[in-house]
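Usage

Read records sequentially. Each one opens with the input sequence:
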Amino acid sequence: MVKRELYIDKIRPLIDKDIIKVITGIRRCGKSYFLNLIVEELKNNGIKDENIILINLESMKYNSLKTKEELDDVVLNLTKNISGRFYLLFDEIQNIERWEKAITGYKVDFNCDIYITGSNSKLLSGELATFLAGRYMEIKMYPFSFNEFLSYKGGNNEMELFQEYFKYGGMPFTLELNSQQKIDYLNDIYNSIVLKDIVEKYKLRDVNLLNRLILYILDNIGNPFSVTGISKYLKHFNIGFSNNTLYNYLQYLENALIISKLPREDIQGKKLFKLSEKYYVTDHGFAAALLGERQQNIGGILENIVYIEFLRHGYDVSVGRIKNYEIDFICRKNKRKVYVQVCFQLNSPETQEREFRPLKLIDDNFEKIVISMDDFDFSCDGIKHLNMIKFLKEFI
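and closes with the structure output:
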């Protein structure tokens, strides 16, 4: 059992506060389990079982519910004999049409505390955001961190465990499976997301283009994305597309929380660029599952792990540029700013120069770090060098 303390610590101060708690994250990252942890927390606070109502909208019991009116009937029936304050927890709320009106209605009419989960990044872009501006709190959930992975696995061989984490990612249920089962399960998750959250939702016809697009992104993690590059790639498969279709499909993948886009930022000019963004995947295990035996981009996967780790801890992240050099990540949280370079190994003077030089050009006093798999400490000129495992365990 992994208690997911990072998220419990975020939710605990919000219990019984007059805001709706919204937990978002990719399918199968642990949101349902987290709702059960919240139920456990409520019981520990002395809340009676009958005052806690958990509705999983993907379970057999409730997956036939499709509309606000159907959900209203269930909620009214379940709460009619409850005295005092009660707690409503809804899992995968986006499965209900006009769910926003249902939730706002419960907020107005009942003495209740509400928790909802959803698997779409646009969950809060509709009426809930309009009606309840400032009255909800979003908690973004991700697959297991390496620390959570270690907590589940136990043992002292951190390098061996990191190699497993590096290849298969942190989707919670994969930890109970053997290698082939992990691959099969990750493929099943991907196919489920594509079908339920993209193809059915947006009524897509060209699923082949969508699949080829995600394969291209996985093959090019850490590289700037360009329409020219994807055009050349898709020509090999005789796939035609318009730029508008391409950008729509990218947005659908983002909405389903499979991928995440980073803007580019000019460190000296303080400008954001909309072109040549980078894309990373929410769980890097999808690379092993979907690319098969193809040689993985080790540096790109390491970047992906670092990027998601910063997001997991609430940082805003962008890609930096200074003169003609790139900074992998600029990470901001409150008053803290960290410039980050990531590579596999600093095994030559040329590689060390390539990774450290861009950071040396930055003339402010914020933290600057280089992360690699090396055990030897290459720190110099005020720039910290961290081993990847040490970073994941201790830095943030």
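Summary fields computed downstream for this record:
- The chain has two domains: 5-140, 146-395.
- DSSP finds 15 helices and twelve strands in the chain.
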